[in-house]
Amino acid sequence: MGSYPQFSFVLRFFCPRQRRSSKPILLLTLLILLTFFLSFRISAQNKIVWSDQENPIVEQLHGLPKLDDTVRARTTKDLAMQIRQLPIVPNKLKLAGARAGLSTEGDFGRDTLQEVTTTLALALREQPPAGKPGEPDPVYIELASLARYEHMHGESGIPQFAEAMAQLEANDADRQNADFTLTDLQGKGWNLKDLRGNVVLAISDEETAKVAPFINQRKISYPGSARPRTKSQ
């Protein structure tokens, strides 16, 4: 084991000397130790080490959820600008992606959202992730989501951005084709496609005996559907 003497101690603990014939136990113990060692190495390699320039930004990102909406909107815009002004450091894209992922949790205005989008696009241009063939990196999906659903200006000239946009379009098409039929509390059947363009019904997996009083108490006027439970549920 070389530089890991503690492993030999653990091995003796699991496999005492008087049980030399216990080969299955020995093999199992070695497998457990190998799994532990590999998990430790992978965890250590994946640990992010923030630089002195990045640490203040990380601390502000962690504190964002505690701020009220007005301060949070202003801080979000300031953080986007701070990340953009960083030199090309290893974690710049991680920070830009994290900031973009939090930017839609509230209504901070189009200007703030565009600053976040621009920062992410520039970070991707500086440090483009390799990704897998035919599978855009999640950061490109984040940028494409801002462009498609928030109508922000992204990076239309980047191939992975175009692939991410195509993936979102395909996902939206699949959702548009989704269909199912449920029966409401009065026994009437409702088809999802027939309701397109309207507010759809509420669905519960509770028994009708529980759902009906809830609807009556809160005076809910739209149709609701309860799916009967089986014994296995």
Reconstruct the topology from this structure.
Blueprint: H1 6-14, H2 23-46, H3 55-63, H4 69-85, H5 92-103, H6 110-126, H7 138-149, H8 159-177, E1 181-183, E2 189-191, E3 202-204, H9 208-217, E4 224-226
Parallel strand pairs: 3-4
Antiparallel strand pairs: 1-2
Helix pairs in contact: 4-5, 4-6, 5-6, 6-7, 7-8
Outline the low-pLDDT stretches.
1-21, 39-45, 228-233
Query: What is the number of helical segments per DSSP (H or I, 4+ residues)?
Result: 9
Give helix % range.
Answer: 55-70%
The Rg value, from CA coordinates, equals 27 Å
Quantity of strands, as a count: 4
Count of structural domains: 3
Describe this structure in words.
- This protein has 233 residues and is mainly alpha-helical.
- The chain folds into three domains: 6-46; 55-175; 181-226, no CATH class.
- 55% of the residues lie in helices and 5% in strands.
- It is built from nine helices and four strands, in the order ααααααααβββαβ.
- A hairpin with a 5-residue loop joins β1 (181-183) and β2.
- The protein is elongated and about 65 Å long.
- It starts with 5 loop residues before the first helix and ends in a 7-residue tail after the last strand.
